[in-house]
Amino acid sequence: MRAFILERYGRKDGVRIGEMPEPELRDDDVLIQVHAAGVNLLDSKIRDGEFKLVLPYRLPLVLGSDVAGVVVRVGPRVRRFKAGDEVYARPDKDRIGAFADLIAVNEADLSIKPKTLTMEEAASIPLVGLTAWQALIEKAHLAKGQRVLIHAGSGGVGTFAIQLAKHVGAFVATTTSTANVDWVKRLGADVVIDYTKDDFENILSDYDVVINSLDAKTLNKSLRVLKPGGQLISISGPPDPDFAKELGLSLFLRLVMRLLSYRIRKEAKSRKVSYSFLFMRASGDQLRQITSLIDSGVIRPVVDRVFPFESTREAMAYVDTGRAKGKVVVTMR
């Protein structure tokens, strides 16, 4: 089958389009013919070797962590899906490979595709949707009337998280560039900080939750806008001890994670707030809840550009620029 393959870490010329064997179908697996795949910064970070200590993939590796397509075949233990179903998923972190003609995904990580979306739109949802859900609903327990700051409101996670937070009934602030201020307001943001003109920490205060996807400088500034008891949740690091424990890492790597996050955890404690790192996990159950919100019109996907599969390298380069509004997708069809 055709696939976009990572052969060497840390080099952009270490990826290529080539042929790979069809994936093995386990008893609990669903084999999907890929129609479209979302492109994420996570793909670039894996390509560059940033996660090789905690996610020791065997190379060559097929990249891609968002998939939408049609079920071709199911394993003998699969009960929820059948051939011909239109589905979407964020495959488990150990079984990525959406940039290919076919991918095998565990039944538990899969959901029927939203009926109202095209394959390209559906492929834009799983990773950012699950990230926003697990940050706001599962970890922060965001409630009506609470105040949340969502950084990078025009990005993939940001565009989804703003809509989800407004659905919950929260008051939403976000940061973005001048060109996107009016656009993120239309997504539902109540307060928009143009980071090219203003410092958010000088404008915002007494927030319950901050979702950070940016750099360490922004992370530290975010502590200042939280009220006592508030939560700072970061999807861009640094990883914390709970993350190391969740992945079952060695004692050495647990110590490394503790040291990496020591400063921000200490500063958070001194301000009577909490810090936690989120590395999103696959979940078919949560995707089904997201599907209901999409099909009812509560949340709409935001797709910036769709690239043909042959231009996957260019699609990743475009995501790397940080200028995409919403998500970037590659199509196999």
UniProtKB/TrEMBL annotation:
SUPFAM superfamilies assigned: GroES-like, NAD(P)-binding Rossmann-fold domains
GO terms for MF: oxidoreductase activity; zinc ion binding
Keywords, sorted A to Z: Oxidoreductase
Taxonomy, superkingdom: Bacteria
Domain Enoyl reductase (ER): 10-330
SMART domains: PKS_ER
The protein's name in its UniProt record: Alcohol dehydrogenase zinc-binding domain protein
